[in-house]
Design the sequence.
């Protein structure tokens, strides 16, 4: 074992917070704690952990209960899908399987939770990489943007021989939870300070992950008239360009009524703008107006995509020619 590993384990023995699931070996109890901690802070999770296990102390008790009852006991902990998953899982297995691979197949268990249960309850040598471990290892080894797989391989390679892997995993997590904090890590008190490559510039390790903006749903209505497609002058960021009507889905009935059409779906297109991601449902309808050849107008990229989606149908109708590629 390397010196930093010894230092971490010694620190953990002295400093681990006395949490109710600490030292627990029952896989089901460990699972309940891990599932609760997926989206809930430690202090908040403790009362729910106690209440849940008081009412359902074993998998059999959970299996015998109705989902409604399970949800009632879970009430207040939030993210009810977690309770649903636990209940579904109790219907699927008589006992929790003892290997990481098998645990991974159960509802609601991702790689982290499966590894936590496998290592803590069953002593399997598998690294549990949560957000805390990701941060500690990225800083310790000065990795700016480690990929999930890379990080898992690194963590797996660091499991020391002859040490309970559950204890090791918890030691790394604990360090991340109380010392190697996301902002202002407490480096002077850290048992790994002498070994840490990233401590002088901890903000870089790991670099914040770019959050993807949620997709915004819109509808593009392609109206096929006698001479082509109905186009409008666009406003806002597309000022000066042309396109088909583009609007939020809830406006569809009103827009159809304005043009006197009933549209049908022609598919979807995705489009990324600087700070927005759009998911646009392309709808088409035959329309009694005139319309025009859209390719003679300046179109933003998004409208080109929309029209290319609608185009096979438009071309089929023989009204709008396919543009030269
Ligand atoms: S020395 Fe600082 S940055 Fe490095 S592991 Fe410890 S707390 Fe984190």
Sequence:
């Amino acid at each position: 074992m390397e010196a930093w590993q010894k230092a971490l384990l010694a620190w953990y023995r002295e400093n681990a917070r006395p949490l109710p699931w600490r030292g627990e070996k029952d896989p089901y109890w460990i699972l309940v704690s891990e599932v609760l901690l997926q989206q809930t802070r430690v202090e908040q999770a403790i009362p729910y952990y106690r209440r849940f296990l008081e009412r359902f102390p074993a998998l059999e008790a959970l299996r015998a209960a109705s989902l409604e009852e399970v949800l009632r006991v879970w009430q207040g902990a939030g993210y009810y899908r977690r309770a649903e998953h636990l209940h579904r899982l109790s219907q699927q297995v008589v006992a929790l399987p003892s290997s990481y691979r098998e645990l991974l197949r159960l509802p609601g268990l991702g790689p982290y939770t499966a590894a936590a249960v496998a290592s803590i309850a069953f002593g399997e040598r598998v690294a549990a990489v949560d957000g805390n471990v990701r941060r500690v290892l990225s800083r310790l080894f000065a990795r700016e943007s480690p990929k999930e797989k890379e990080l898992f391989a690194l963590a797996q390679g660091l499991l020391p021989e002859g040490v309970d892997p559950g204890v090791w995993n918890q030691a790394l997590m604990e360090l991340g939870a109380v010392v190697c904090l996301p902002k202002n890590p407490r480096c002077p008190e850290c048992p790994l300070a002498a070994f840490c490559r990233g401590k002088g510039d901890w903000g870089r390790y790991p670099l914040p992950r770019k959050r993807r903006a949620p997709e915004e749903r819109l509808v593009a209505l392609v109206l096929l008239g006698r001479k082509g497609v109905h186009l409008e002058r666009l406003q806002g960021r597309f000022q000066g360009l042309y396109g088909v009507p583009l609007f939020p889905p809830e406006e569809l009935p009103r827009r159809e009524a304005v043009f006197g059409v009933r549209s049908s779906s022609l598919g979807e297109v995705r489009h990324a703008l600087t700070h927005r991601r759009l998911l646009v449902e392309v709808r088409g309808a035959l329309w009694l107006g005139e319309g025009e050849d859209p390719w003679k107008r300046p179109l933003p990229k998004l409208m080109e995509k929309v029209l290319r989606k609608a185009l096979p149908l438009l071309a089929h109708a023989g009204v709008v020619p396919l543009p030269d590629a």
Q: What stands out?
A: Residues 136, 139-140, 179-180, 185-187, 190, 192-193, 196, 198-199, 202 surround iron/sulfur cluster (CB under 6 Å). Residues 243 and 303 are 6 Å apart (CA to CA). Residues 3-204 form a domain with the Endonuclease III; domain 1 fold (CATH 1.10.340.30). Strands lie at 215-224, 232-233, 242-243, 246-247, 264-272, 277-286.
